[in-house]
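Consider the following assembly input.
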Amino acid sequence: MDKAKENMSIEDIITLGDNRELLILDIIDYKESKYIYCVEVDEEENPKENFIFLKLGQDEDGEYVIEVKDEATINKILPIFTANYLNDKDDEEDV
Amino acid sequence: MNLENFKTSLLEMIKEADNLPASEIEGIPGTSILVKKGRTDEFTAAARYYYELKNNQFAAGNFLEEVYQELREELLNEEEEHDISKAYDLYTANESDLTRLGYLNKSLEMNLSDQEKYRKSINDLNSRISDLSVREEIVNLQKTLESLADSELRIKNDIAEIKDKVNGNVRKAVEEEMQFLKDCYANTRFGTATDFGLDGTSILASDKEVYDNLYILLKIIDNVNEKDPIVAVDSTLCVNPHQIDAVRELLPKINFLNLVYKKKEELKDTISLANNPNEDLIKEVLKEIDKLYNETMNIARGPNPDETLLEEYKIQLVKYTMISFLLVKAAHSKNTLTQVWNAYVDSEDERTFENFIKDLPLFQKYNPELKKLEENQKLIRELKEHLKDLENKVTNYQGLTNPSLTKIGDKVLLSEDAYEYHNTLAIIHMLENSKERLIPVKEGGYVFSDYLTKYKELIQNSKYFNPSKTVEEPQKQDHIELDFTANEEMIEKLKAEMKTLEIETTNHPGEEKSVDAPVLKSDEVEYMMLNSLVSILNSAKTNNPVKVGELYLPDGEGKNFATIMDTIAKLREAKNKSVTPEVPVKETTTDENSEQGSADEELTPTTDATTNIADSTKVNEEEKRSPVDLMFNLNMLDIIQEDIMRLTNNEPEKLENVASEDLEEYTLLVEQQMILKSVKPTSELIQVGSVYVPKDLAERYKEIVYKLASIKQAKEEAKQKNNNNPSNDHGKSDSATDGVQNADYEEIPEEEQEEKHRFKTRKSKKRRGKKAIKCIVGAGLVIWLSPALFSALVAIGATPLGVAAILGTLGGAGFIWKKFKDRKYEDVEPGLIRGAIQDMIHNIKDMRSQEVVKEPKEKKERIYTLNNDFLNQPLEYNQTTLNKKIEEDAKKTRETKIMNGIAMDQDVDEVLVEIPNLEEILGSDHFTR
């Protein structure tokens, strides 16, 4: 997992096995798991409208991601992403 | 004795001295301290021990004064805390009712002013009462007045109910306070100065003024008269206007009530009370959204989802969502609020809101027109029975031989009943479409105000409504001499064509001849068809003729005639023969039976009307149009208006509401509307289909109709295509809503949910910067955050930009959504998104918190009393402290708090909203329970 932390950061692109490309928007730790908030992008890396939550995992074959689809989990992690967004004062300067 | 014992003893001595006459007290030498005579040493000793225990040092210097001032301050604070707590309780108990009272009084004022207006109209009309139409008008106005009087009574009852509730709460608080003062007397020591209150109760002399003021207030409350207007005085209690001055004089003298009205704003800011006149309704709507959402999901995930039901539910979800936003918006509106059914909405949203609620099941019980609608339903049932009776007359007909029959749709009727049948259908149609602004009509039914004139015309010509009166039936035209010259000319022409074909046989002796007709085999079909046309034209004289252009055709044969004509033309074209001269084919009506046509038109769907119009040709150019003829135009205008409302989300003037793909349709509809509106009875008119338009605009009108028909067809085809191919673009859709829809509505197999994706990461080729990333994050969160909004977005499936436009009218979220859809990230500032998200969370919180209140007993029973050091600070200071605390706290324990929020199974949004939970953020030190 630490490896992922090192290798993955906001604005990186994840390419899944099915060739979907996802832009990483935010990463959080929740209940000892890492959750990634991403948006699917097209060939030119422009965001499409599919926003996806991924959960990072690791098994004997290495790291993998699972698309989080169940509402209960989304309802738990969504506020944290929102909190990150709302509380990130740095971007005030950006505006 | 410990520290607390000394403190209690000292406080008692101070309070005791306060309640004694000057002759009974003495000062401690060298200080300003007053105690009961003979207790100076006791006070001094207790003060010394208290000081030493508290400060852990020997008492020296001015310690007596220091202890006295500290305890004196604490006494004052105790009282203030008591008052603040009481004021808070009272404020929370009455706030929403008093706000509602304000709206009810506004409604009452409008109601009374309307009644006055109608009474005046009736008086004016009375001078012309001999006129039948005036008498009818007066009856209608009187009915309206009655309904207003009913409404007035309801409002007054509501006001009285609020008065009882609010004043009941105040009475309870006042009585508790009086009891407290009585207890003070009962617990006092011998020698304390006492007195009698106005009601003869023994009280401490020092409490007399307060006690009497409370007593007077009770008497005022007892004397509030329900027959006089009832108003809220300074957000505190309900009184009659003549009592306001007396109450205003009393309130500042009663501490806790003084706080309620004087510190209303401070209390509001500090305690963040809800102030929404729609509070109960919002709860109901939210419950309905949840219920509907669950039902929708159940259906969608079921084995064979009922698409129609699903679509209906989705539409309802969008409506409820929009309604909840409008209700919340009303609470923050600076505009005047308007009452719509049982809701208060921003006056600018009135129409939109009404359109949303009028068909929704939840709101029907609040529909003030419900009774009228029920009566309409009853009348509709009776009218349908009447239709059946007319239909049955054919089977029961045993009178004359060879009764004249006619066909209307698939029903066969006696010709003499055709008009009545059409007329009744038209009446039913109007009743079924009358759902608002209902005007009572003497003969029966409540109709939408715009229909009134037409409805009355229909009623006047109805046998059902005028059984004893001989209704002038335009159908009874036996005595009118019809001119069949055009028919005869046409028959001659057709016969000549047939003759030509017959001659062709002799010109081509080698060709195969027909067995059934005296023509070549190749001309057989054409010949037979020409013969059919002749038969049709011949039968017109005896078979309920309807004028079609210059010709008369048997009723119902127009379409057949046109088809045959068309086929002949095609046959000839194929054979390179000359095409038959164009013959009018669209059935139009004569003046004699125009009402029948009008009834038909009432029931004609838009598409048919528009597509068929294109086939029509000009007729009757010279004819004068009767008002009944021009009714067709009005009907068409209604239809066009409905379409425009659909495209503009019920805001016909707002072009920005129209989705880009609908713009062409919208523009054409507006142009079509303008052409029809430009018709004046004196204009030179030409009939196009069922309507009359100015002659010089006829071609353009036809073009518009053609274009509209093809747009509708294209849309239908696209819809069909989508329905046939619902899920082949999951994850690849161009529309976010498709994505949302698929994500939620597709049944996702368990194994797919858990599918592990191996992945690679790489740096993005684009250098977006933090701002752009934030924009994308924000836009995504806007979509995800609100389940209600989410539901709404799910339903966007059919018309994404259309619903985005609805959202657009509701604030930042919609704006962002639309920009995001258009991929115009540069137009969206992160700050704007943040604002939208905060607004949304705030709204959700606002709405949900009202549900939460029901359950947690612990929360409900808590009475927070704010410590003075916090309360006594200026508000700005408190706010700054709070903000600072929030920031620090957010940085340090943000995630922990959120986790706790989740672990406690609370509404997670609550943790995020920057309306602080004071206890949690400031720490329990600031609270006592």
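Chain B is about 60% helix and 5% strand. Ask yourself how this observation constrains the way the partners meet.
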